[in-house]
Specification:
The structure is a homodimer. Chain A is built from 12 helices and 10 strands. Chain A has helices at about 5-20, 25-30, 40-50, 70-80, 85-100, 105-120, 170-185, 195-205, 215-225, 250-260, 265-270, 320-340, and strands spanning about 55, 65, 125-130, 135-140, 145-155, 160-165, 230-235, 275-280, 295-305, 305-315. The termini of chain A are far apart. Chains A and B meet through strand 4, strand 5, strand 6, helix 9 and helix 10 of A and strand 4, strand 5, strand 6, helix 9 and helix 10 of B. Chain A binds a DNA duplex through helix 3.
Chain lengths: ~350, ~350
DNA sequence: TTTAGCACTCCATATCCTTGAGTGCTAAGC
DNA sequence: GCTTAGCACTCAAGGATATGGAGTGCTAAA
């Protein structure tokens, strides 16, 4: 059967209405739309066709139609009108970002909160470090007799540290020597080369401080191993319960448990080869628990070779146009903010942080 | 009216039963209990008394009784039988801790997940840094021309760092000088002394690197300001929905939104002067959203002057005995693990807290 | 002081009915 | 040919009514 222009128009109307009302859409409701010049009977025929073509579904004989997954897919890909953010919306997103981004180290969490608030849906936010990092530099800082701080700088400019306490006394001198040794032997190495053999060699050269080596090596390999893994936050789950489709507690629980589990761990894989915004409709989704929901995700650039992803989870009938618009705008603003450190037009040192407010 | 032993026994039975069934408890159900030697009429009289005394409530005339907040309070404080953890339970908690604790920096999150799983309720986990910290030491590490890493060591042995990129070239020499200056002038100072005047003086002495000072100072004050603030994670919200009292979506939403908001920010204050485990029943609770739920919280020691708190949120009829037992055991195990400096394979003398030992 | 008995209350559940929105189909109109 | 008015039919949602049963309070007897 041919998917005529009129059929598309009807389909779009059905989806639009269903997104607004969450109720099955009848032929009469379509007729009432401003630029629908046909009678309800004609619409009924078109809707019957769309149903046999698989774009619409009927909960029961005497109900209106609701879009099927395929219907949403078509809608998202071709039919939906682009949503233009109002100036108000862009402004409120911008000020939100400015206000909240004082402390960058909570980036992931903050972004999740903001996105959740902006869309009134649960939001996912994650940042993944660049994979396959190597160590660029070790620093050992004395912190008192018997304890020191290990600082490991990675090739992706990430820095991790750890306070290590040992039952032996170390001097500043010991640490200087040891860090020189570490920097000479264990930098620029991929994870695979951190073998027992390497550790042995280093320990043998380390002399007095050799007992520190295992702790350091363990922490380092651990860091390298987990570099590249994602750091994910989900917030705003309770917003789901405000939606009519989740008045059914069982449904709600299924979805929520799909959200706070590590069930989302393959999201990064799904987004691997995508640029920009991706919409996963219902069954296309990452996990079984989410098969009755949709996920809209988009990437952004955090700089330093790191990537961020933000997304929201909602019912399949969510307002894709609005959500994708807001999400993209978020991603764009964040990319602008973090992606390019090389745009210092302020004499003010531009770190990842902003505006010293001390007068 | 006198609260006789028999009344207490009845009250305990009512609470026990209600915890199990989530249904109002009638006089007959009490009679059916193994060591109840009285008839239902007698029990009825006792229950009527307990109702007028405010320990029980009646949803409607012809229903059984449910405990009031005061009833739960009494139950928790005096009546409940101590729950003894089985060997299985202690073992599974221990292995969970061992497995998951590889990476300490995700402590808070991991703990929340484990506790939530162990109790089948939403869990809260937080770690608060010691308040009123001062800076013990600054370190500046070159990370490439135009960028360096600022490491700030606090008096509570916490270490924070930040990668700073600047549009000017800094040499290793510059950084050495600057860090000496910082360590000479800005360590051991409480937050209040970080004034504009101080910054001016430092900048004037800093010479070539003076433009770095504002960024450093800002980051430092920010760190000090947020030191003492808590780092909180809530997980397992969806577990609530499995409970009969939250089949009502509106109730569920209220509670959930009370959980993922910052509504919990005054929990630390509530726990301030408590040691061990605290039970907040219903209206005693931290926020209005949680007034129909109970919170069980307990502290543990992370070492380095930092404190952790774990807790769960559940319906007022939750199994207090079981929950508090598991929570305490968790807290104890974690204290053992972190409370003392990290001494590889040295058995340590630990914790003087009371020990629910395995049977 | 305890208990058996009884009348009473009120919720929960099931059943039945009505209502109305929506459909598919047919036949007439353009 | 396409479109539309009309009609019979279906089915879920909501309201009203009846019924069963769990539980109570009270009284009087043991």
């Amino acid at each position: 059967m041919e998917l005529t222009e009129r059929k598309k128009k009807v389909l779009r109307s059905v989806v639009d209405l269903y997104i607004r009302t969450a109720e099955p859409v009848g032929s009469k409701a379509i007729t009432a739309l401003p630029d629908m010049k046909y009678s309800s009977a004609t619409i009924r025929n078109e809707m019957a066709d769309l149903t046999t073509m698989g774009y619409l579904e009927q909960p029961h004989t005497s109900a209106g139609r609701i879009p099927s997954a395929a219907g949403y897919r078509l809608y998202v890909d071709e039919l939906m009108a682009e949503y233009r953010l109002s100036i108000d919306e862009t402004r409120s997103i911008n000020t939100a970002i400015e206000e909240k981004m004082q402390k960058v180290d909570k980036l992931v969490e903050k972004v999740a909160r903001m996105v959740s608030q902006a869309t009134d849906l649960p939001a996912i936010s994650m940042a993944s470090r660049a994979a396959n990092a190597t160590v660029k530099r070790f620093e050992l800082i004395l912190a008192g007799s018997g304890s020191f701080i290990l600082v490991v700088m990675l090739s992706n400019d990430e820095v991790v540290n750890k306070l290590i306490k040992l039952p032996l006394t170390v001097t500043d001198e010991d640490l200087k020597l040891l860090s020189a040794l570490l920097n000479a032997t264990m930098t620029e190495l991929p994870l695979e080369e951190f073998t027992a053999g390497l550790m042995d060699r280093v320990m043998r050269s380390a002399g007095k401080a050799s007992s520190l080596v295992p702790v350091i090596v363990e922490f380092t390999t651990d860091t390298l191993r987990h570099s590249g893994s994602a750091n994910m936050v989900v917030t705003g789950q309770s917003r789901l319960l405000g939606l009519p489709e989740y008045r059914d507690v069982d449904k709600a629980q299924k979805v929520l448990s799909g959200l706070d589990e590590d069930a989302l761990s393959n999201l990064p894989a799904v987004m691997q080869n995508t640029n920009g915004t991706k919409v996963l409709v219902g069954p296309e989704n990452v996990s079984a628990e989410l098969k009755d929901t949709s996920v809209v995700m988009t990437k952004f650039d955090i700089g330093d070779g790191m990537q961020g992803m933000i997304g929201v989870v909602g019912p399949t009938r969510m307002d894709y146009a609005k959500v994708t618009a807001r999400l993209s705008y978020f991603a764009e603003s964040l990319s602008k903010m973090f992606g390019k450190p090389e745009t210092p037009q302020l004499p003010e040192p531009v770190a990842e942080e902003e505006t010293p407010k001390e007068a």
